[in-house]
Amino acid sequence: MKTHEVRVHRSDEDLPREGELAWALAGLATDPAPLEQLVEPAVAEMVGNRVVDNAAVAAASLLRAPVVAARAQALAHPPSRGGAGAPVVGTATPVSPEWAAWAGGVAVRELDFHDTFLAADYSHPGDSIPALLAVAQHRGCDGAALLRGIVTAYEVQVDLVRAISLHRHKIDHVAHLGPAVAAGLGAMLGLDRETVHQAIGQALHTTTATRQSRKGAISTWKAFAPAFAGKVAIEAVDRAMRGQTSPAPIWEGEDGVIAWLLDGPGARYAVPLPEPGEPRRAILDTYTKEHSAEYQAQAIIDLARRLHVEHPELREPGAIRSVVLHTSHHTHHVIGSGANDPQKYDPRASRETLDHSVPYIFTVALQDGTWHHVNSYAPDRAARPDTVALWRTVSTAEDEGWTRRYHDPDPTARAFGGRVEIELTDGGRVVAEIAVADAHPQGARPFARPDYDRKLAVLAEDVLAAEEVARFTDLAHRLPDLDADAVRRLQIVAPEALLASVAAPEGLF
């Protein structure tokens, strides 16, 4: 790896294009090295796993309101002139690729149940796949080209997340996703470096937004935000291919993103990037979710499940006086009591809010000994009197040690869990901790290919026919060898009657 130094430059310094981060990322995307040199077998296998993972969570969300709305919007936009179109998630109906990406992106994110990477910032790199897949299907790319694009998008997003914190400045993390998708599309389509450079700049410029989408009463926009980033990245690539240019230098400019939205004029970042021809391994540092909840809650769910079995006395109503979860700064301030969001303790809160409330999540997982992507969020489950009573005794506290472990530069030592201290009404005390989720690469039961396949089978149980699950899984795991026709069939297709069972809302289109 090499380090690209990034800082703000005054306009009169005249930063050469070759010094821009966007130019360096465009170089990464347009590396002419053979695919077999850039993509090792373990990486190719993991890409297939994540395609299956995305399909699993998309299948489980097909009838949820945001996905129904996004699908209806997409179906109103027939294929554009530049290709054959791409099928809308859950159907075989082709539409214009940016709208297929839109619908697919919403379906993948709606349950907040796919892959994650946490470092200086946080991300869901799998959000890039719907946009890349839609354009590949539209333009007739084969599996090898799509693989190159996905690996590139993961590399760009992970490398940005390693170095540049957005959440510290209340900027939503999709500002790293837009440039990643643009770079991935450039790699997949074989575009030249200048075109990709312009697309990356436009994608960043149009995908920077505040993190109010994940604060307070969290709305359905949380599912749409990454889909929007993918959609506008596609549009940015289209404009760049037509010779249109972008604000530059987009990160480093005197009035650019760093100077006014991030750490300011004195900021310096060191972004690690692979050398030309160096294998792209970033996807192997990412991890998926076993449970449908914010990633920092994954380990806490596993800890609560363990306590449910090891300490059955904790299940009794009134047995607990207080619960304090000592954890990282990020967990405390984003999904814990440090967020100062009263909605995180409100049984009438939206599902999106509850999935960002670790006090709620710990309570239900402790009482039930399990976690379910639907049942654990049901309004009657959240409103159960014994749950509400226990829930309101649960708080979080920042612990410097856990914060250090959260940011450990060694990915094998990085930890996203915490220590729980439970005071009982009889004067007893229970203390336990967990470093990483069971499904994490360093966890008790790291996710492997059979786990991804099982996740799709389980989440699609009432949605897709078993034959459809097997068909899609087979294609995903053969991704590098697929021809263009097979890539066009790389979409889950649900029964028409199932999709029609939920009325599509009316809009402008």
Fold and architecture overview:
- The protein is an alpha+beta fold and 509 residues long.
- The chain has 2 domains: 2-285, 2-methylcitrate dehydratase PrpD (Orthogonal Bundle), CATH 1.10.4100.10; 295-434, 2-methylcitrate dehydratase PrpD (60s Ribosomal Protein L30, Chain: A, 2-Layer Sandwich), CATH 3.30.1330.120.
- Helices cover 45% and strands 9% of the residues.
- It contains 22 helices and 10 strands.
- The strands form 4 sheets. Strands 8-7-9-10 form a 4-stranded mixed β-sheet. It has a two-stranded antiparallel sheet with strand order 1-6. A two-stranded antiparallel sheet has the order 2-3.
- Strand 9 (418-424) and strand 10 (429-434) form a beta hairpin.
- Helix 3 packs antiparallel against helix 20, helix 5 runs antiparallel to helix 10 (221-241) and helix 8 (174-189) packs antiparallel against helix 9 (193-206).
Quaternary structure of the protein: single chain
CATH architecture of the largest domain: Orthogonal Bundle
Q: In whole angstroms, how far apart are the ends?
A: 47 Å
Look at the structure and name the CATH superfamily of the largest domain: 2-methylcitrate dehydratase PrpD
Strand order of the largest sheet: 8-7-9-10
What best-fitting shape do the alpha-carbon axes yield?
Answer: globular
Q: Tell me the helix content.
A: 40-55%
Discrete helix count: 22
Question: What structural category arises from helix and sheet content?
Answer: alpha+beta
Percent range for β-strand residues: 5-15%
- Uncertain segments are none
What is the number of strand segments? 10
Estimated radius of gyration: 22 Å
CATH topology name of the largest domain: 2-methylcitrate dehydratase PrpD
Main beta sheet strand tally, sense and closure: 4 strands, mixed
How confident is the prediction overall: mean pLDDT? Answer: 96
Protein name: MmgE/PrpD family protein
Organism: Kineococcus gynurae
InterPro entries: MmgE/PrpD_sf, MmgE/PrpD_sf_1, MmgE/PrpD_sf_2, MmgE_PrpD, MmgE_PrpD_C, MmgE_PrpD_N
Domain MmgE/PrpD C-terminal: 291-478
